[in-house]
Design goal:
With 387 residues, the protein is α/β, with parallel strands linked by helices. Helix content is 39%, strand content 9%. The protein is globular.
């Protein structure tokens, strides 16, 4: 059975080491959300590092993107194409581990996040897309689209107005496959948030018609696991799970302080944290057993992507099976009565004579509703000389 404590501490160690080596970054959030990540990524998230873009995977969004080392550590540990050398180049030029997650740069990143609250809105859009696609393509006995969207968010995300708008829409649209886990640590880069952030988050999301679970202990993976399982049973509402956590969990002197938020812990504090956590391994050293516990390629639900088993394999196109450029042109031209004669581009020659004045006048007018857009767009553009 996987050791949840070691799995979480591996994330904490990588976050401390990468930020320290870069001398820049946010170690506190990854350290605080590590146990939440164990519950979600280790027990619920359906994904496959081998084909990371298969269509029916669960989506994960890190809305508080400044804690990017959480996501980079998860992608590395679960088997994505993100080697340890990339973690050692955290926040360096041309690295795949930028200061905030960037889609298209790092495999496994679903959306670029950084501006607080924007990732929450992205997650709402992904959940809406899942619901629309499921309504369009799913049939009785043949479910093609069936996945969840998960989002980690923090105090800063919920302070932004965009989160109010997006989450209100999620409740109105009944996006029941949207599950948000709120990292409620009460600390920002300026210190405790209580003097300026007094929202009753639970009541706010109840007003949005969300299913609200918690507050719960965000450092107990079993409790977070049970909350996610409960959220997955919801059929009519999105879910917010309020997880009480400690920023910089494990750090003897910087946990629950702004010092853990946006700066390296320092070599001395990292040594003390390793001792407190019982993590005896050196910088960027992960035991083989921890890799095995995290490896998503070895887990059955990920090895056989959901929703694809009933589909026959798609034949690979051959040169002879591809439609010709003429066939594509003919298919795009709906009005056959006005279809112009097709010739390969190498055989086309410009018209030597100018157009009559009457035709030139018609060409400047708006196409009639019966005109074929493809034919009209392909009409010659030469003009007769003016007298």
């Amino acid at each position: 059975m996987a050791n949840a404590s070691l799995m979480a501490n591996a994330i904490r160690a990588l976050a401390m080491d990468a930020v320290q080596l870069a001398n820049s970054g946010h170690p506190g959030a990854p350290m605080g959300m590590a146990d939440m990540a164990v519950a979600l990524w280790g027990r619920h998230l359906s994904h496959n590092p081998a084909p990371p873009h298969w269509a029916n995977r669960d989506r994960f969004v890190l809305s508080n993107g400044h804690g990017s080392m959480l996501l980079y550590a998860l992608l590395h540990l679960t088997g994505y194409d993100l080697p340890m050398d990339e973690l050692k180049h955290f926040r360096q030029l041309h690295s795949r581990t930028a200061g905030h997650p960037e889609v298209g740069v790092t495999p496994g990143v679903e959306t670029t996040t950084g501006p607080l609250g924007q990732g929450t809105a992205n997650a709402v859009g992904m959940a809406l897309a899942e619901k629309l696609l499921a309504a369009e393509f799913n049939r009785e006995g043949h479910t093609v689209v069936d996945h969840h969207t998960y989002v980690f968010l923090g105090d800063g995300c919920l302070m932004e107005g965009i989160s109010h708008e997006a989450c209100a829409l999620a409740g109105a649209w009944k996006l029941n496959k949207l599950i948000a886990l709120y990292d409620d640590n009460g600390i920002s880069i300026d210190g405790k948030v209580s003097p300026w952030y007094v929202d009753d988050v639970a009541q706010r999301f109840n007003a949005y018609q969300w299913n609200v679970i918690g507050p719960i202990d965000g450092h107990n993976p079993d409790i977070v696991d049970a909350a996610i399982a409960q959220a997955r049973e919801e059929t009519d509402r999105p879910t917010l799970i309020i997880c009480k956590t400690h920023i910089g969990q494990g750090s003897p002197n910087r946990a629950n302080t702004a010092k853990a938020h946006g700066e390296p812990l320092g070599a001395d504090e990292i040594a003390l944290t390793r001792e407190r956590l019982g993590w005896t391994h050196g910088p960027f050293e992960i035991p083989a057993g921890v890799y095995a516990d995290w490896d998503a390629r070895l887990r059955a639900p990920s090895a056989k992507p959901r929703g694809t088993s009933a589909l026959p394999p798609m034949p690979r196109p051959t040169p002879n099976s591809r439609p010709s450029s003429r066939a594509v042109w003919r298919a795009s031209c709906r009005n056959t009565s006005r279809r112009r004669r097709w010739t390969p581009s190498s055989r086309r020659t410009p018209r030597p004579r100018p157009w009559p004045a009457a035709r030139r006048a018609r060409s400047r007018s708006k196409p009639s509703p019966r005109s074929c857009p493809s034919c009209w767009a392909a009409a010659p553009t030469s003009r007769a000389p003016t007298s």
